[in-house]
Amino acid sequence: MTAETRALMGACAVAAFAATGALAQDTTITIATVNNGDMIRMQGLTDEFTAEHPDIAVEWVTLEENVLRQRVTTDISTSGGQFDVMTIGTYEVPIWGAQGWLQPLDDMPDDWDADDLLPAIRGGLTVDGTLYAAPFYGESSMVMYRTDLMEAAGLEMPDAPTWDFIKEAAAAMTDTDNEVYGICLRGKAGWGENMAFLTAMSNSFGARWFDEDWAPQFDTEAWANTVNFYLDLMNNYGPPGAANNGFNENLALFQQGKCGMWIDATVAASFVTNPADSTVADSVGFALAPDNGLGKRGNWLWAWSLAVPAGTDAEEAAKTFVAWATSKGYTELVAETEGWANVPPGTRQSLYDNPAYQEAAPFAAMTLESINAADPTNPTVDPVPYTGVQFVAIPEFQGLGTQVGQEFSAALAGQQSAEEALESAQALAEEEMEAAGYR
Q1: Is the entire prediction scored with pTM above 0.85?
Q2: Which residues pair with 59 in a beta bridge?
Q3: In order of start, what are the domains of the chain with their CATH numbers?
Q4: 206 — phi, psi (to 5°)?
Q5: How far apart, in whole angstroms, are the C-alpha atoms of residue 96 and residue 103?
Q6: Is 130 helix (H, G, I), strand (E, B) or coil?
Q7: Are 121 and 329 in contact (CB under 8 A)?
Q8: pLDDT digits (tens, 9 = 90+) for 176-220
Q9: How many secondary structure helices (H) and strands (E) does the chain include?
Q10: What residues pair up with 137 in beta bridges, in sequence order?
């Protein structure tokens, strides 16, 4: 690492806390994070942080996405104090910040440059003007596809495809004899797994979770069209065992050359185009998430962010780490060690203004366009009383979304019909809304 980078990263973490005095010697912070590639890379760079801050020891708890959510939610809601830094998402931050469960991050270093954060990402992490989490990477979702298979099928992917085109292309690219499947989509149950995809998809079909009076809407034609189209795609052109596939499983399938198309998080672009990991790295194209001509695309908006729980006894050390890991200096460190294409995307305008990044990342422009296309304050065709594109920003959604996800995953596994899954989803949502006092 260059002296300039080391100096910048040190300044980002130290300057904000100089006024409060030196950190206690041998402070240990425990960080809970998700087992995504960018987070694993951050964990691998821990030695760079501790070289800058030898008085801070770092312990990691790295978990699968659904397990992480359960652990950090239980810990913070019970004031358990297990973690000093938590990796949480755009769903949790505004809810937990409003409840006083997170430390405000309004004392970040000047060099950290909060004004550089993309407005859509920063807005999702802010409550009443106060930032409660620092975005590590931001994402929307988009179509990633095999350009060689698309060409062989005699088709050309539009920059802004429709769902009908996606179905046509999936059929044309499927070659089950050679274990190539036209499309890979999330099927694993979870409010942040299959329901992230299906909720975003449903927006483009004119569906919504609730009407303006909080009445559940799974008994509508729009939801029936969404689920039936999804099941038709997956049953005819998807890989076997898709009900068990989430982000990581589909990433592996795509990298192995088994998916013609994959509609998922924009952050995956650097992994599918990395020749060290992907067998199809030189044959990947990108397009916006599909639409149905109703004014909404099937893409989401998300940020995995680092937050400091209010109950930590190592606030200064925790904030020092958060400032380091989400700084421009950290981005430069990853660029230096892994290349610009592999830096955490989707959080800062300066990254997308950087010619080195634009040249190294062929997906940069489509990622930014996808992020800007998402509108969490107006996510659906018809009006709704909630915010959130792939989730409903109410505390009850975490449990309800997972229950509904289990019903749709069971339908994908062939254990029940789409109609039965929708009936169960409607009943679950009605019961939850009544019990929680919305109805």
Answers
A1: no
A2: 30
A3: 3-139+301-360 (3.40.190.10), 141-300+376-435 (3.40.190.10)
A4: 85, 15
A5: 10
A6: strand
A7: no
A8: 999 999 999 999 999 999 999 999 999 999 999 999 999 999 999
A9: 19, 11
A10: 304
